[in-house]
Write a structure and sequence with these properties.
single chain; 254 residues; mainly alpha; two-stranded antiparallel sheet; 10 helices; 63% helix; globular
């Protein structure tokens, strides 16, 4: 079994386990698998603290910003065909048109995707994953909140979507066998390191400001995912209302 297939099988197994287990009544309705989720979250956090964050920090310190931006643009461009397919499946044809235009512009004028010229032309990068597609098709209930090993926050619907996305993102559509596994693993590893390097300060601030890092992270993920799901149905995104819980309510007469 290849590493890519093993990861997908593991995701499906976790999703099925979440569906098959009857949660005890004393667990929170919005997170019935919380004890298991917390254990996986803690493992992921320890792995991040001891391995991933130090590697990402070294990458940030050693690799020039110009090179890092080329890496980010290239990896994002590789994902555009998957985004296009999901936009089409969701019936978001305007978004699909923008995505294919971005891919052509960045592949041709952007030297194989190394430069993001499309954004400068007003072609904003679109979202598009199979979890969104399932939602657009009517799978309203994503199932219980689920923290996946290595992949992080999800739910049953999005875990299944992730499994599909792993099979439909290049190079798996172009290269077969062990070469696809090796290239896919390398691209995925570089993608993760680059993304982590771009969010070091953000995650540090999130952790420092959290009384309970697990619940705070869960809340942030749910808000972010809700916006992506709205977009899957072509609904206008709503900017989050930032409320300071320690602030004194204003007098409505003022």
């Amino acid at each position: 079994m290849t590493m890519r297939r093993f990861a997908t099988v593991a995701i499906f197994a976790a999703a099925l386990a979440g569906c098959a287990s009857a949660p005890p009544a004393d667990r929170a309705a919005d997170d019935p698998l919380e004890p298991l989720n917390r254990a996986v979250f803690d493992f992921n956090d320890r792995l991040d603290t001891t391995v991933i964050k130090p590697v990402a920090q070294t990458y940030l310190d050693v690799v020039p910003a110009f090179v890092r931006d080329r890496v980010r643009a290239f990896i994002d461009n590789l994902a555009e065909p998957r985004v296009f397919v999901n936009d089409m499946l969701q019936g978001r044809f305007d978004a699909a048109g923008i995505t294919v235009s971005r891919f052509l512009a960045n592949t041709i004028a952007g030297v194989g995707g190394l430069f993001d010229v499309a954004t400068g032309q007003g072609l904003r990068r679109q979202t598009g994953d199979f979890g969104q597609t399932l939602y657009a098709w009517g799978v309203e209930d994503g199932g219980p909140y689920l923290v996946l090993l290595f992949f992080g926050p999800s739910d049953v619907r999005d875990a299944i979507g992730l499994g599909v996305d792993l099979y439909t993102t290049p190079p798996s559509l172009v290269v077969q066998g062990d070469d696809a596994t090796s290239i896919g693993f390398g691209v995925g590893l570089l993608d993760g390191i680059d993304l982590r390097s771009r969010n070091i300060d953000t995650l540090d601030a999130l952790k420092a400001s959290s009384l309970d890092y697990y619940t705070h992270f869960r809340s942030v993920w749910r808000q972010h995912r809700a916006e992506a799901l709205r977009e899957a149905r072509g609904q206008a995104q709503t900017p989050p209302e930032l409320v300071d819980p320690g602030a004194t309510p204003e007098d409505p007469q003022k």
